Amino acid sequence: MADMHAALGKLYTLEQLSAGTTVIHRVHPLAKLAATGVYLVCIVSFDRYAVGRLMPYLFYPAVVLALAEVPYGLIVRRSLTALPFCLFAGLSNLFLDRTALFHLGGVAVSAGAVSLAAIVVRTLLCVAAVLILVAVTPFVQMTDQLRRLHVPGIFVSLFEMTYRYLGALVEEASAMVTAYRLRCPGAKGPDIRHMGPFVGQLLLRSFDRAERVYQAMKCRGYALRDTMRTKHPLTAGDWIFLLAVGGSSVLFRLLNIPLLLGGKL
Amino acid sequence: MHMADALLSPAVGLTMWAVSAGSVAVSASRIERQELSEKKLPVMAVTGAFVFAAQMINFTIPATGSSGHIGGGILLAGLLGGFPALLTLTAVLIIQCLFFADGGLLALGCNIFNMGIIPCLIVYPLLFRPLLRKGITARRLTLASILSVVIGLQLGAFGVVLETTVSGVSELPFATFLMLMQPIHLAIGLVEGVVTAAILAFVLKTRPELLESAAERKALSAGVSVKKTVAVLAILAVLVGGGLSLFASANPDGLEWAVEKVTGSPELEQNDSVHAAAAQAQEKTALLPDYDFAGGGAGGTSVSGLVGGALTFALAGGAGLAISAVKKRKKHTAAR
User: Fold this and answer.
1) By the CB < 8 Å criterion, does B209 face chain A?
2) What is the number of other CB atoms lying within 10 angstroms of the CB of residue B286?
3) Domain assignment of residue B329, given as a range
4) CATH number, domain with residue B158
């Protein structure tokens, strides 16, 4: 099934990118996580018409993507997938908020249009920030950091294992859908009447697999409580990254940079 | 039903984060205390991956030409029990958020609440399990699945509407948004409920021992505290309700308020509760609410703002391109 493999491709592309060795990849995961958090909170704290004031926040994705050698197109394309629901909510602004906010070359621009634009920009920036975080932080470092932040061990282990088994289960589901299609030519997917046994089969196979996984883990001496938390203090470089990204986010929130820049012209 | 960051205010996002993180921590500690938690872990992980894969199987809905997919909250709870199901769904939601841009990072708390806590910790113990208390039959299982999925989705959709409206980014009025969301999710819930019922009925027929509710029924009769679970849920509900009403009545944008207070904007110097309430009412009715006309004439301000915005955009893009170019050249020379 093409879209299933496409989804797996998405997962693995990000994982491959995160294995880079650029200066951004080397930053401490906590610094990246905290910086992303500050960045997101600052962006969503703007009022709904602040489309211009969001522009300085483009610096972060533009600069970090370039430094981390992550292709722009990839992040932009992925960010676009998050748009539909936001557009649904934003389009209503276009119709419900029709007050003219200002005139641009004789055309009145309504408040709704501005807030719609702001929603679109916010969406793209927020999604890009999260994708960048994942593209420059290896999965192992991320979960290691979660443990250091005292997220319950059982949950972090569950998160790691779920991630690892996605590939296997998606492959299995995909093979089943292919088999179904070969037996029902022309069918896009299973008929709703067949979903019980169809997904049920997949489920039984999953349980059997879990049993084998558990036995294999036990053979290798696995015990839940043994997972070690490695120590990894922040270096000066990590602090600089955190202060640069977090500080600039707060600064852009406090100062109206576009207005200052535009006013100088 | 995945919510995005762009439609949320920080107050709503962070409050829901706290609620969801608390529930996940409670669930984790409850599972860790069980003897077999280690054995349960691979089952939870693989079923999590299963839900992820099963969500990708689009089935066709007869006579409509459309297709749907399962959600998984009640299905997981029926198989694993409420607390493990919540942890498993949370792991799936985090993966969807991080790797597939499905739901935002700040909105993760809302999404865990709407799609995880509601079905696993509210609908499952209060509706699904009581319906099966007298013993699991195919008929009861079907009824319990359909009802639970429908009610879980209705509550989840209501959560989305409430969280979006309280955030105040979208202009959609509460009632209109509700009228749009609830019927759509009623239809989705019915279809998903039928499919969930069919899957659980299949498991009941082939491997009945896998149904957690079957095991739990025995435990229940042995006197494991249903009361305690209900009490925990009631406290949770009060906390959540209290949290929601708190920021529903306070300033809708806590961070903005704090930031403006730091900058000493005159608008907020007179910010006592009466003024805040009045300002909020004014914001709702004003024609040009909240827009920054600091520079005097509205036209002039917006034009310089617009030019500045475009300039910033160009600068940011230029900076990125310049870095890329320098890096490429470096690599090129290194290769030679």
Assistant:
1) no
2) 12
3) 304-336
4) 1.10.1760.20
